[in-house]
């Protein structure tokens, strides 16, 4: 191969590397069939490419660690709600597990299933903004100010998480878990397919765990009782197809502890 042709190929390979396309062509140009000047320059560019790839990999690993640490912190904050409200303790983990099981039964992709599971764990993080009056409630009727607080927690949760853009659709699912199929939910009054699937999955899982959990003023319902109520809510508050699939899942796989 003539030196001129080798130089043309080297120039093309260098342009590819500069564009971020790290092909093997630059490495091939270090072979003995090429002139010394072509080989030396190709070797130098190849070493530079290796260092850049190593640096990018290091930054990616560092970024993953930062994301993981941030997510662990947020999850710990959500779990700390149990210190203020005994009912809340373990609720997020159970909702996450129920939602994940329903997502698997629906055949959703693995990444979407993980988003739904994480949203289940974090869905009530906005309750951090609740007053002690709400957490100390013994089941008596809430006044208007307390109801406004309660209806605000999906928005507060979204606001807490919104800067963690790596959470992706988790943010929308947290925001939408109290919307209803008939449009009478909150905070935005979405209806039907306007509600993301992940939000509809969370709504079913959240509703079931809320009904079957013991509270100071009310013993948790049995699975059969909860199934009956879910059936009554299907089509109005909850997605009817998801309710059917969820009941099948619990009947076959049992309840979370």
Automatic annotation (TrEMBL):
<dbReference type="InterPro" id="IPR003660">
    <property type="entry name" value="HAMP_dom"/>
</dbReference>
<dbReference type="GO" id="GO:0016020">
    <property type="term" value="C:membrane"/>
</dbReference>
<dbReference type="Pfam" id="PF13487">
    <property type="entry name" value="HD_5"/>
</dbReference>
<feature type="domain" description="HAMP">
    <location>
        <begin position="8"/>
        <end position="57"/>
    </location>
</feature>
<dbReference type="InterPro" id="IPR037522">
    <property type="entry name" value="HD_GYP_dom"/>
</dbReference>
<protein>
    <submittedName>
        <fullName>HD domain-containing protein</fullName>
    </submittedName>
</protein>
<feature type="domain" description="HD-GYP">
    <location>
        <begin position="66"/>
        <end position="257"/>
    </location>
</feature>
<dbReference type="GO" id="GO:0007165">
    <property type="term" value="P:signal transduction"/>
</dbReference>
<dbReference type="InterPro" id="IPR003607">
    <property type="entry name" value="HD/PDEase_dom"/>
</dbReference>
